[in-house]
Amino acid sequence: MDTPAHTSPHNTAPPGDLAVWIFILAELLAFGVFFAAYAFTRARHVALFDAMQQTLDRHTGALNTLLLIGGSWCVARAVEAVERDRSPTGFRWLLGALACGAGFVLVKGSEYLAAFSAGINLSTNTFYMFYLSLTFFHFMHVLLGLVVLAILAWQTRAGVYGPTRSHGLNGLESGAAYWHMVDLVWIVLFPLVYVMH
Amino acid sequence: MSANTKLTPAIPRLNRSAVLLALATLITLGVGEQGLGGRAIMALLLGLALFKGRLIVLDFMGLRRTAPLWRRLVLGWLVLQALVIALAYRISSS
């Protein structure tokens, strides 16, 4: 069920700052090129990619997907709470998002550690070159997202955002949009790299 | 963009989307664990990714109630990814 606020006509700009959305579109384009490069390179090395894919742990990939989804859900709930001028509730949701993001970093970090311990690196083969560079590029975005979420949580706790505040929700919505972008990219990355063959 | 401070979907929709996203992820994992492959499975996996991406874009990102241009740009990226991946996999299987 929508709130009355959602009866507004469909002629509004996206939530947050326009500059952030331009940045998001540029990031999506970069990841898109990466995904296409992976898919078409795989087309020339199907046996290698299918064999190497079997060495990945799909369970940790799925766990990371659930952690990012959980983080996005928490962020969306935080924005919803602050919209209703409930900053303390929004702060708690942002802490939840931070916990999910930290969980992702721990799980992904353990995957990297296991791979490096096994002597796997960028020059191991074409599949691992793509796997490590593509997932690490995304990993860096998660780390940046965690910094953004930490700042948002601190400012939300301080009551910076809210419908009656001078800042409105612009900063919170901008950071939230970035975090959702990181989630969206993983939604494509997980089946492409971990499952599809 | 102060006019955008009331775009977040209501709580039930956010909760429902989160549950659907988790379920779709578990289905994806299940397909992977079965070791299934082929065009039909690829189409299923891409369909699940599109379904999940649409929920994130419309509900979490809050683009359901924005100008159509923004929805089309982000959802268009998602559809383009699926088409490019499908094309590459078609080439590899032909």
Report the major sheet of chain B: none
Report on the biggest sheet of chain A.
none
- Choose one word for the global shape of chain B: flat
Secondary structure: number of strands of chain A: 0
Instruction: State the distance separating the first and last CA atoms of chain A.
Output: 40 Å
Shape verdict of chain A:
elongated
Overall tally of structural domains of chain B: 1
By CATH, the superfamily of chain A comes out as: Cytochrome c oxidase, subunit III, four-helix bundle
The quaternary structure here is heterodimer
**Termini of chain B, distance in Å?**
49 Å
Roughly how much helix do the residues of chain B carry, as a percent range?
over 70%
Extract low-pLDDT stretches of chain B: 1-5
What is the number of strand segments of chain B?
Answer: 0
SSE order of chain A = HHHHHH
Give the strand content of chain B. Answer: under 5%
In the CATH hierarchy, the third-tier topology of chain A is known as Four Helix Bundle (Hemerythrin (Met), subunit A)
